[in-house]
Amino acid sequence: MAVTIKDVAREAQVHMSTVSRAFSMPHRLRPETRTRVLEAARRLGYRPSRVARALTTGRTHNIGFIVADIANPFFPPMIKAAEHTARARDYHLFIADASEDPAIEAELVDALAKQVDGVILCGPRIANAKIERLSQTIPIALVNRKVDGIPSVTIDVVHGARVAIRHLLDLGHKKIAYVSGPRQSWTNSQIRRTVTATAGGQATVTVLGPNTPNEDAGLAVAEEISRTGVTAVLAYNDLLAIGVMEGLHSLGIDVPGDVSVIGIDDTVLARLARPRLTTILVPTADAGTAAVDLLLQYTADDAELGTRSAGHISLPTKLVTRDSTAPPPRS
Amino acid sequence: MAVTIKDVAREAQVHMSTVSRAFSMPHRLRPETRTRVLEAARRLGYRPSRVARALTTGRTHNIGFIVADIANPFFPPMIKAAEHTARARDYHLFIADASEDPAIEAELVDALAKQVDGVILCGPRIANAKIERLSQTIPIALVNRKVDGIPSVTIDVVHGARVAIRHLLDLGHKKIAYVSGPRQSWTNSQIRRTVTATAGGQATVTVLGPNTPNEDAGLAVAEEISRTGVTAVLAYNDLLAIGVMEGLHSLGIDVPGDVSVIGIDDTVLARLARPRLTTILVPTADAGTAAVDLLLQYTADDAELGTRSAGHISLPTKLVTRDSTAPPPRS
DNA sequence: TTGAAAGCGCTAACAT
DNA sequence: ATGTTAGCGCTTTCAA
Fold first, then answer.
1. Which chain B residue has its CA at the smallest distance from A2's CA?
2. Which of A55, A87, A111 sits opposite B55 (nearest CB)?
3. Is the CB of A40 under 7 A from strand C?
């Protein structure tokens, strides 16, 4: 077995409670004693067991991070930032992949609940009511969803979508399609609404979907796009947009010559795709950091769960113009 | 506080040890009792505390997963597969990002050690000796590194690199560069050695690097490539290869017209980049799955740590020919 | 300032 | 087949 607090106590010739104090309330020890204990601990290579500590204190110093799809390039920078932030605050991160499935997502929250101080739900697919219920059990912070009383970091997609559509209108497009994301996505409904509202009388909007937000779905929707005769499409995310571009390409339709395409997220892929994808920049790393801080702040609050003060942060977006958008063809 | 084993015991009118058995050794209970307990647990929404369980059993049912860089597209599919596999075995996954830094990586192992049953090191940057030392403390499984007595899953980059170089030789290239990865990478040294050996008398090989395996580094090395006058380059990974392609492009050098480029990994990026990148396919998801299974198998072994039987798995690679390779220019 | 003792939620002998 | 009891490694009153 590994070295425990008892071993250190013996080595330092003190009681185990003194060793405990040396780590959790060092100021309440005589400097001399503290040094002796810490010295002994160092010699033995002692590290307090977080498991045992969690059992008494009720705090695990762990956070659960649940995402819809780890492989979606939107998430990794966010996970990375969250992990770094958590570690800086002396927390460890559990990662879990919900596979875009609300049921799995909810089950993951329950499965992790006893082992974490809080859970971050990224792009949750669960219904609001369910989220509210879960958050009675365990502190939850949301990314890309806003629910009253629950801390959340959202991205200003309303602004993003508005700017994207205006960009299209300015180029002269009159028939626009929105390639929709998953039905359960809050972000998706925000965008859809904004697209319609912004286009107003200036352009017709066709909504295509819902779609699973990956390349294949984009590929599949391309044919439908060609049939609708739109000259521009905004997609729920870069993955879909890139799929659409590939699909269009294989249909012999030129981007942006015949059809303009805009994505959302500005993942690595946007810069790499050809034509390079015009897209909405979303500060994912900031979102990861903010989510961790919001959650920790919320859990630190010692009020009853459910009566705590939940912070909300909204992150700005901006249009990144590249090569996938142009004026509509003359014909 | 949440509902505990005592609450269930009271509700089901049995002793807590009976409740415990209902979950961990259900067959040793009279079916009738078992049902009554499980029913009570369900009514109260009881879940055993893994923390408390870990304290008595010594098994946390957690795995630590340490990668060099979460944002490197090579890792997410691996993390995803590992997480799914772990969950299927009733394990949860801690994720940690070592930022390509050996010191952080080692520290992470220590930090997680008390909280996990084992750690998976992906593309470790730590020295072998240090890994061996760490593995005395906590079971470790390796991805992309082979150390005696430690379970590992490696990728047959030797074969991959050989095939890549042969492809280049077949096209008629006589001057080849290898854009090297991080110095501490085992994979990198494997590749470098193979490149030189395979080129043999048929082509000269220039090694450029070591480099941090990201796009920027690739971009930076492009100028050096142009100076060496090579007509083909193999890069340590897709990220570097893509950086090289971009750098070459901005130098007015055509890929593959003037210089051929081959990457390694076959990440999403390879298919998306223009020209589409010829690369070596690496089964990352399989690696994630295999690593988890190897580790669990190793930890299940009840021999002394250090005397257990370590499994090794080698995963095949293959060349994916796309548009970034062609015969050298005539001049 | 330090020690003693109880207890966090659970499992694992041991007893019945 | 089920109950009793001790104890996992630590924190936290309470005493001294």
1. B137
2. A55
3. no
Token reading at B328: 């050298």
End-to-end CA distance of chain B: 78
d(CA A214, CA B306): 44
Q: For domain B62-155+284-316, give the CATH superfamily.
A: Response regulator (3.40.50.2300)
State which residues of chain B have pLDDT below 50: none
Which stretches in chain A have pLDDT values below 70? 1, 302-303
A317/A167 Cα distance (integer angstroms): 14
Q: Which candidate from A70, A87, A274 shows the least CB-CB separation from B274?
A: A274
The two structure tokens encoding residue A177: 């399609």
Q: Tokens 């969950």 identify what position?
A: B87
Across the interface, whether the CB atoms of A115 and B94 are under 8 A apart is answered no
Structure confidence by residue, pLDDT tens digits, A286-323: 999 999 999 999 998 766 777 788 899 999 999 999 99
CA of A65 to C1' of C3 (A): 41
Domains B62-155+284-316 and B157-282 share a fold: yes
Q: Which residues from B are below 8 Å from A268, CB to CB?
A: 73, 269
- Between chain A and chain B, the number of residue pairs with CB atoms below 8 A apart is 121
Shortest CB distance from A272 goes to which of B52, B95, B269? Answer: B269
Task: For chain A, give every domain's residue range.
Answer: 5-57, 62-155+284-316, 157-282
Instruction: Specify whether the CB–CB gap between A141 and A307 falls below 8 A.
Output: no
Q: Kindly report the backbone phi and psi dihedral angles of residue A155, in degrees, each rounded to the nearest multiple of 5, phi listed first.
A: -110, 135
Q: Which fold has domain A5-57?
A: 434 Repressor (Amino-terminal Domain) (1.10.260)
Q: Kind of pairing, strands A92-97 and B92-97? A: antiparallel
In this structure, the dihedral spanned by the alpha carbons of residues B55, B57, B61 and B64, taken in order and rounded to 10 degrees, is: 60
Q: Which two tokens stand for residue A133?
A: 């219920």
The domain B157-282: what is its CATH number?
Answer: 3.40.50.2300
Q: A307 CA to C6 C1', in Å?
A: 32
| pTM exceeds cut of 0.85 | yes
Residues of A in contact with B96 (CB under 8 A): 83, 87, 92-93
The encoded tokens of residue A196 equal: 């319609």
Structure token pair of residue A291: 């989510």
> What is the pLDDT, as a whole number, of residue B219?
97
A77 cis-preceded (ω within 30 degrees of 0): no
CA B109 to chain CA centroid, Å, is 15
Separation in Å: C2 C1' and A7 CA: 18
